Every structure is written in C-alpha cells, then in structure tokens.
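To assess whether ligand presence alters the predicted conformation, the chain was also submitted together with S-adenosylmethionine. Input:
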Amino acid sequence: MQRSEILIWLWETNPARLADLWQQADQTRQRYVGGEVHLRGLVELSNYCVRLCGYCGLRAGNQGLQRYRMSDDEIMACAGKAVQFGYGTVVLQSGEDPELTCDRIAGLVRRIKAETPLAVTLSLGERDDDELAAWRAAGADRYLLRFETSNRTLYERIHPPRADQCSPHTPCAETGQCSPHTLCAETGTRSVPATIRPATIRPATIRPATIRLAILGTLRRLGYEVGSGVMIGIPGQTYDDLADDIELFGRLGLDMIGVGPYLRHPNTPLADRDLWPEAAGGRQVPASELMTYKVIALARLVCPRANIPATTALATLNAHDGRELGLVRGANVVMPNLTPPRYRALYEIYPDKACVAETGETCQQCLSERIAAMGRKPGRGRGDSPNYGVRVVSRDSDVEIAGG
Ligand code: SAM
Ligand code: SF4
C-alpha cells in the first residue's frame, strides 16, 4: 500500500467508505491469519522503571506511585493459570527495571519453558544485546518493543535517553555536559539518579531515536518473533507522522503490531497542554477510538500475516465493544490480564485502565464469552505469527532495519 493511500484513509471520515476499509482488513485477517482469536496471558511483573517517558505513569519521576515487583513464584503461579485457562502464550511485561536482571529473567524463562507448553513473550524495555541473547537462549520466543513514533524529533522529546545513552547533542543545560544528575537541555528533564541506572551500557554514539529500531534489528537477528507499534494521538503527532509509522510497520516486516490510543496521565509531563501543545493547523492526530480502528485496519493491510491485538488501551476507550470492533477490523489477538489483583491498579500506565478490578478468572470468562458471541473461536496452541515462518523460510532475517 502506498503512503499516499494510507494518508487518505487516515483522513477519511465517511462511514460508508470506512466500511470498505473495515471489510478489506477483516477479509485480509481471515485470509492470512484465520478466524481464531489468540489469547495472550499478560503478567505485569514490575512497575519499577528507570525511564522518564513523558507519557507514562510508570516513569521514574512519578513519585506518587507505590512500586511493586512480583516474585518468581508469583509469576509462575500466573503462568500456571495461563495453562489452566488454555492460553498459548504468557507475556511478561514491566517497566525498565534493572532489578529484573539478566540471570533472573533467563532463569524465569527457563522455568516457564520447562514446566509449561507456553510460548514466552518478553516486553521489558530497552535491554542490552547480551541480555536479549541470553533470554533467547533460555527459550524466550518473542519480544515487544514499540518504537512509539517514527518522528525522531517527537520521539526524542517524549522519550528522553537513559543517562548512559545521552550523546553529545543532549548536553546538560546547567553544566554543558551529560551526567546522571543534570538537567537535559533538549528534553528539559532531569536524568535518572545513578543509583537506579541499569548496569548495561549502550554506546552513546547512537541517537536515542534509533536505539529502539536498532534493538528491533538485534531481536530479529537473534531469531525472536519481533513486535512493535505506536501510540495514536501523542500531542504533536501529525497525520503525516502516523502514515510514516504505518509505512514503517511494513518495512520492518513485523511479526506482531501493537497500537493503541495515547491516554493522558495527569502525573506526566505530556499532560501539561501548555508544555506539550498539539500539532497546529488541524494536523494533530486525535487519540480516538475511530483513529485506532483505522490504524489496526491499515496495519493489517501492510502486514497481512502479523499478529495484531485489540489492546487494553482500546478497551479503556470503549469498554462496551472496543475489543470486538478491533477484532472485526483487522485484529486477531486479545491479552487477558493475569496480574494478581493486588498489583493491577499499581501498573497505572494511564488512569482508568480497563479490567483493573477483575481477576484472572473473570478476565478469562469475559473474553471467552465475547469471542464466542462474535462467532469466533479462541486460538489453540501457541499462535505463532505466520509472518515469522514466512520470513525465516525466505531467509530475510538479516534485513537491515537499524537506522529506520
Ligand atoms: N517498559 C516497556 C516499554 O516501554 O517498552 C514495556 C511496558 S510500557 C508500559 C508498554 C507500552 O505502554 C509502551 O510501549 C507505550 O506505548 C504504552 N503506554 C505508556 N504510556 C501510555 C499512555 N499514557 N497511553 C497509552 N499507552 C501508553
Ligand atoms: Fe518505563 Fe515503559 Fe513506561 Fe517508558 S513506557 S516509563 S520505559 S514503563
């Protein structure tokens, strides 16, 4: 699909014409990934995070948040529930938490693989190449890391570099240098205190906006199923930016694509509308339900074999039938939450997140009933992405994506 066509769809408001987009996406989904809805049990391991992402409630700067980190036994109990509920995959997600060490995650992955038939997806942020390699060797199957936006300037504003990733073009406003306790001239934020910095270091020569793309290349070379995605409606994100994002999904040949609306968290810098104005001249992408469906549908058309979830953020905007509409407009995955109820509300990326008051059991029952009511079936087995099989067979795993 040409970028110009993507852009036309993003601007489209006519319901009759949009019905055509929904139909194309639904037919493509049926043809390439079938009618099953794969269930991924989500475990939110830890809400500790060293990062200062301007949009996220887990950011290190949010001191009002009570922090937690689950024990291995608690995580294994969640994996046991995933098996009991018939899910094929467990997704281990967290803030960028240095206490989740390489060895600890490797041991956990090995335990899950030894004791269950589950596929393991990791979503632990920007981690060192050696760690990613060790987790893959331990048996991890997939890794999710959204590039958030392909607009590099916007990305670097909303996602300041880790202290050890600062490069000479992000000098401190106070000292003219870059060190862990100083005020970044570019982002206006203070870096993370050295005491909570991760031990692993990436070369400071890489521009922050390309680090995630470089990691996606590494994941691919290591043989992971690779997932990425964006938020929709970040203040300052234009229709052109979003069209670039969708085009990039295709160029990256993603196996999994996660997209969802940006939802304001009051204790984050992006919530300040004066500091973070919207794009001018009517070019700002709305963080709306409709725009989310469009991006899901277009993602399906540019990456027909990818696994695409109807996300929790979408269900947060429309608890009634947001997931169902996502599933008939290109999505084929849902992610029932397995995080123990006492931790759920603390994994507050944004307020009023869907399903925080539920248990693993009620989420499982609710989603199974919704899938059945749609005349679809829950997926059996691991639900690997057909895209992964195709690209591994066609040996395109060396595609160079590091520079974006
Ligand atoms: N720390 C890991 C990372 O950043 O990749 C994984 C956890 S992070 C909470 C998962 C995703 O949540 C991010 O990639 C981002 O797109 C999304 N997210 C964070 N804050 C959000 C917000 N305010 N609205 C919508 N999505 C948000
Ligand atoms: Fe941390 Fe991820 Fe939130 Fe950024 S998006 S603050 S890395 S949890």
